[in-house]
Amino acid sequence: MTGFEIEEVPYTSGSISAWGKLDERHRNWPVVYTLEGPGKVYVGESLNAAGRLKQHLDAGKKPVRTARVVKDPTFNKSVCLDLESYLIRLFAGDGKYEVLNRNDGVTNADYYGREDYQKSFKEIFDELKDRGAFDRSLQEIQNSDLFKLSPFKALTPEQAIAVEDILTGLFDDLEKEVPSRLVIQGDPGTGKTIVAIYLIKLLSDIQHADLSEPVDGDSLFSEFFVEGHPALLKDFRIGLVVPQQSLRASIQKVFRKTPGLHPSMVLKPFEAAQATPFDLLIVDETHRLNQRASLASGSLNKLFREVNEKLFGKDDLNLTQLDWINEVSRHQIYLLDAAQAVRPADVPREALEQLTATARKAERHYSLTTQMRVQAGSDYVGYIRRVLNGTAVEPQVFPGYDLRFFDDFDEMLTTVEQKDTEVGLARAIAGYAWPWLSKKDPAAFDITIGDRQLRWNSTDVDWINAPGSVLEVGSVHTTQGYDLNIAAVIIGPDLRFDPVTDRIVFDRSNYHDKKGMQNNPQRGITYTDDDILQYVKNAYAVLLTRGVLGTYVYVCDPALREHLRSYLTPHDGKSQRVRSGRSPVP
């Protein structure tokens, strides 16, 4: 559809002026440009490329080694805004450069012919890569944590509304010098983590904004880059609390590559509680904060007591890490989904319900419903939860989504390896139904099903992207908060189906997450099988909602296999078995 060309312009005043005179469209036509220097890149769009490059030069955007202008006789303003956002996201995901742009101008607006133009965007990327602008392929970038967790995401309309309302309320509270507390609630895949990262980057950009520079009127949040707002954020301490180790490390990697952010801003709950008080703490995966329980080690239990004594002057067993966050910050933003709590030590559901109710009453509660991960749509998450909870009335079909039910385990693993070659990020993941023998003995196998022997994830941090992970099995603790293209879920013998009671039941003898069924003697709590069953179901619901392009399912318990078969059918809706000629393996 388009006939684009990319021109490289020497970055000197005389060269830019001479280039501007070569073609009228260099001064009066919508284009996109990049400025690349040592370790840094800036992407912009303009109706007057020569004038805009001259402005950058005069403003001191140096050193710039290469100025590239992408032009096309069919470009219009909407196309250029879209291409600009596309390149910003890819530069951020590639990791070769730090992206100097603010994130408030990243758009996702529709326009006439967008699908055809976006096909040419891939060609533009390929040419820029050939010229050295990118290091990685498009698929490698789009599968990377730097891309998936980037602060340069284009927000959905409901995310944008929430961010705008949150910023308006925050600046109003700062002017009035009053504290605030709000909740963002959403199912898996609705982009809670993205909102948290986007907000922190946007606040950092406002905090350090040079208001003498012209404001882009097309910027989504340009109204916040005004006199007074940077002053309100002077010395404003922001932290992002992430309870899960692996997700925390991945976000720290993103912050390390993002100007205005720093990995030290991403904290464990214990670190946040012991640091200098914060002006704002944003808590991702709030449901994974801890209550007082039998923690991972005696030293952590001792530290829990010490933090309580430091913050509250006493060790009250009812105090949780949620109380810590409230105590050490003036403003809080909690992102949560109570149905993703997977261990008894997680903050009690009642505390999350009270937090949510208070936010609703104060009109500081935001719901995210648009499904950004699973291409089966928003209904899929609720359907999976209903299936596991035994409340699904009839099978549901998700056209275009690669949902497969396997009777042959070996066939599923072979398909996963093929899919990983094709699209990347195809992984086998499972419930904690086998002991982790290979943690102490790397030569040992953890999971044996039929003739296949497998090991649990060989690393706790960023397992999904680790070499050899396609040949291993990840647990909920290495996948919660992440996207996979294909999630091959092994429902282990920790779940069984009781045909007498017609319900899914928990098999304690085949559950090996010690912290997942540990009683809480300090608080006099003993967890029954039914209590733990809900946490195990929650964990499987998390696993079954990781797959962007598809979800594959193998069930170990024969009775449960037959029960789930009609619900987790192939994407064409036919209740058929995926086999390779061998008998099902229990």
From TrEMBL:
Fetch the Gene3D superfamilies from UniProt.
Answer: P-loop containing nucleotide triphosphate hydrolases
Coiled-coil segments on the chain, per record: none
Provide an example Pfam family for this protein. Answer: SLFN-g3_helicase
Sequence ranges assigned to domain Schlafen group 3-like DNA/RNA helicase in this UniProt record? 182-557
Signal peptide (from-to): none
Any idea what this protein is called?
A: Schlafen group 3-like DNA/RNA helicase domain-containing protein
Give the source species. Answer: Kineococcus aurantiacus
